[in-house]
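Q: what sequence does this backbone want?
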């Protein structure tokens, strides 16, 4: 910087400049030309966002994730360093365990760098015409490419709405093979699913912080379920593991939870902390009807969500129209506005908690991989050395619940961490148990060390950026 000051003061810059007799105390500080203009330009770009016609308008959503009251500025190198640390720990200590015991086939595909670097995701689930696409349009204050809205089942595919340089739709087969996108794991569901999957990109200040997943309406009736050409519940479960928030939308006129919807909600097991229930279009019924609708919804959820606690239900009308005061009056309008503010504050906190969520999901995955290794190695140990392998395998698969209990007692593991028995049995039937690996204590110990020492040390070294 002294050399820059000397040059700007008119001195000749040579190898002996700093050794020359120059009065540095009176020397002016170096000036950075154009810096003020660049900063001012960036502030203008952040504050203004393009509307649907392409003209620049002041975005009311632009300050959602930049409010000084709601979140503290997080130094980017903190988060990057923690995420990079998790990447290294995964490759070095967790991935060898997953590969050895086929964790990707039973539970979740192997992680890539893009999975760690992905933006926080919000997924919307619900039966058809409950307002999922309209909800997204309400958040963005504009429609996204490929959006269809109507009273019939209009959204027939999974649509990922994310930030991009221009407005366009990218087919699922293309997006699934891009290394910088966190969707490579969806290739396991086949071409039949990828043809029903697409990515909508558009420049938007909200999408710079989160990615939104729109889903097809959950149908009712056995006929509609069997006509899907892909595993709808499996895809939903895959997205649930990646998402930071899951919104279950209900309509006052569609409170029945169909068989498929029940299976979808059951597939969200283990992600209860991410689920938010939304009673949408609440301004279409009067106060008395709304009270009965709320009670009926809570009763229906109580039979599906196996939790003793009462689920929080957000009541509102998430669309571009002003709230209809005629049915509920001014009291109803005030209630809806408060509920909407509560839900939007949840959405606003997602980027702030993204780093903590990454660590939480990583630890959860490590525990699941460890238990999976115990299960596979135990089944391998139970197989005979020579004769009767087929009969023994059938017996083990049929009595899988009892085997889980044995493993739990032998290794002192919590019952809640074990996988779904039916799903595990279905995948296991396609394998020869005799071909599995025996227990490798070194791999288990590496994961234990990672959970007990490496991750706490990582957080200690870089500190918690959100404190």
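A:
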């Amino acid at each position: 910087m002294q050399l820059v000051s000397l040059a700007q003061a008119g001195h000749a810059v040579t190898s002996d400049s700093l050794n020359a007799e120059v009065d540095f105390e009176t020397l002016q500080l170096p000036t950075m030309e154009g810096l003020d203009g660049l900063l001012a330009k960036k502030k203008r770009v952040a504050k203004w966002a393009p509307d649907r016609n392409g003209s620049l308008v002041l975005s009311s959503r632009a300050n959602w994730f930049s409010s000084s009251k709601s979140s503290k500025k997080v130094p980017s190198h903190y988060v990057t360093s923690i995420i990079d640390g998790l990447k290294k720990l995964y490759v070095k200590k967790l991935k060898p365990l997953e590969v050895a015991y086929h964790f990707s086939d039973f539970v979740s595909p192997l992680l890539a760098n893009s999975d760690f670097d992905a933006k926080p995701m919000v997924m919307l689930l619900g039966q058809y015409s409950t307002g999922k696409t309209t909800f997204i349009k309400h958040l963005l204050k504009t429609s996204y490419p490929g959006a269809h809205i109507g009273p019939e089942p209009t959204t027939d595919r999974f649509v990922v709405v994310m930030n991009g340089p221009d407005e366009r739709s990218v087919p699922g087969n293309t997006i699934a093979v891009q290394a910088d996108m966190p969707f490579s794991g969806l290739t396991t569901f086949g071409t039949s699913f990828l043809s029903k999957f697409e990515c909508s990109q558009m420049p938007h200040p909200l999408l710079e912080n989160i990615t939104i997943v729109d889903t097809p309406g959950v149908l009712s009736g056995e006929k509609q379920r069997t006509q899907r050409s892909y595993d709808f519940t499996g895809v939903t479960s895959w997205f649930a593991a990646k998402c930071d928030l899951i919104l279950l939308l209900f309509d006052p006129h569609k409170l029945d939870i169909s068989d498929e919807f029940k299976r979808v909600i059951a597939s969200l097991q283990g992600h209860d902390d991410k689920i938010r229930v939304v009673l949408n279009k609440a301004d279409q019924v009067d106060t008395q009807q709304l009270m009965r609708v709320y009670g009926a919804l809570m009763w229906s959820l109580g039979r599906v969500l196996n939790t003793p606690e009462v689920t929080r239900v957000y009541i509102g009308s998430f669309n571009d129209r002003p709230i209809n005061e005629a049915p509920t009056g001014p009291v109803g309008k005030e209630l809806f506005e408060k509920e909407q503010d509560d839900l939007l504050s949840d959405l606003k906190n997602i980027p702030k908690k993204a780093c903590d969520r990454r660590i939480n999901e990583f630890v959860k995955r490590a525990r699941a991989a460890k238990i999976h290794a115990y299960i596979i190695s135990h089944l391998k140990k139970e197989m005979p050395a020579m004769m009767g392998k087929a009969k023994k395998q059938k017996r083990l698969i049929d009595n899988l619940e009892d085997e889980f209990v044995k493993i739990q007692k032998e290794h002192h593991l919590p019952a809640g961490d074990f996988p779904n028995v039916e799903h595990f049995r279905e995948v296991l039937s396609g394998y020869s148990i005799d071909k599995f690996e025996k227990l490798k204590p070194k791999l288990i110990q590496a994961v234990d060390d990672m959970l007990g020492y490496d991750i706490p040390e990582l957080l200690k070294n870089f500190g918690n950026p959100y404190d």
